[in-house]
């Protein structure tokens, strides 16, 4: 890993990925993009890691978005399809991800926070889709329609105006709020709650949510049943009820 993105593989099964260019407000310059792609790949292929937390170094910005200097220098028109490593878009992850937003999440910063499964935000965080302010576009924002109401999404994209963390929480973009000094503790708490579940059950639950956003009710039910088969047939599916009856914590094997 380069120092543009830090990777902390904790012994408890949580990976903490940190965008590490605070002097540039953690913007998505080439070194950060490459580091983030490598970090997601490392997280996915390490079976000991079950949840990832993505955050930014410093207190001012989670990520200020794309590198405008690069856009000017290269005369960038349509961004290359593989320019950004985005879960559910340009890469596939099978494990849950949490954005821990510690400051401004603007444009591409909102994009990568949105791409995570869950979001914990500092009370000082701000969010904005600012592309209309600089003549760019935000096609990556399309999945927002499954997260927040249409009229709110329309206003955010058409005006480019930022919203504070409290408003982001009210509209459903953010799962939990924390004081700045408690942000990482809150993200780790959420990750630990996920870790308490059986690994295959967590995967099936995550798949069920995403399948429900991709298709109609009947098709989603059928697809979710199929996605849950491995969970039902696992050793953990027998261990969970047995542990409950024996009044002890379950011992998950992930099999």
UniProtKB/TrEMBL annotation:
Keyword annotations of the record: Lipid metabolism, Lyase
Molecular functions (GO terms): lyase activity
GO biological process: fatty acid beta-oxidation
Coiled coil: none
Domain of life: Bacteria
Database matches in Gene3D superfamilies: 2-enoyl-CoA Hydratase, Chain A, domain 1, Lyase 2-enoyl-coa Hydratase, Chain A, domain 2
SUPFAM superfamilies, A to Z: ClpP/crotonase (SSF52096)
Entries under Pfam families matching the protein: ECH_1
Keyword Transcription: no
PANTHER family assigned: (7AS)-7A-METHYL-1,5-DIOXO-2,3,5,6,7,7A-HEXAHYDRO-1H-INDENE-CARBOXYL-COA HYDROLASE, ENOYL-COA HYDRATASE-RELATED
Family: Belongs to the enoyl-CoA hydratase/isomerase family.
Designated name of the protein: Enoyl-CoA hydratase/isomerase family protein
Organism, as annotated: Nocardia bovistercoris
């Amino acid at each position: 890993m380069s120092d543009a993105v830090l990777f902390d593989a904790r012994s408890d099964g949580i990976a903490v990925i940190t965008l590490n260019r605070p002097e540039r407000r953690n913007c998505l310059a080439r070194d950060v993009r490459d580091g983030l792609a490598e970090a997601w790949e490392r997280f996915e292929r390490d079976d000991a890691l079950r949840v990832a937390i993505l955050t930014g170094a410093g207190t001012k910005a989670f990520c200020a978005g794309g590198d405008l200097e690069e856009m000017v220098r290269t005369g960038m028109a349509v961004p290359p399809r593989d320019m950004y490593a985005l879960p559910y878009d340009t890469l596939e992850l099978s494990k849950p991800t949490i954005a821990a937003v510690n400051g401004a999440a603007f444009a591409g910063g909102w994009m990568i926070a949105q791409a995570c499964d869950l979001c914990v935000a500092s009370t000082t965080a701000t969010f904005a889709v600012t592309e209309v302010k600089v003549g760019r576009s935000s096609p990556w924002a399309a999945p927002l329609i499954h997260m927040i109401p249409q009229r709110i999404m329309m206003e955010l994209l058409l005006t480019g105006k930022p919203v504070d963390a409290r408003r982001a929480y009210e509209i459903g973009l953010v799962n939990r709020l924390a004081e700045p000094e408690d942000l990482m503790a809150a993200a780790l708490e959420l990750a630990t709650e996920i870790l308490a579940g059986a690994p295959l059950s967590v995967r099936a639950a995550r798949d069920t949510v995403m399948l429900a956003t991709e298709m109609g009710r009947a098709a989603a039910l059928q697809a979710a049943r199929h996605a849950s088969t491995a969970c039902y047939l696992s050793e953990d599916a027998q261990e969970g009820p047995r542990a409950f009856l024996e009044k002890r914590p379950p011992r998950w094997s992930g099999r």
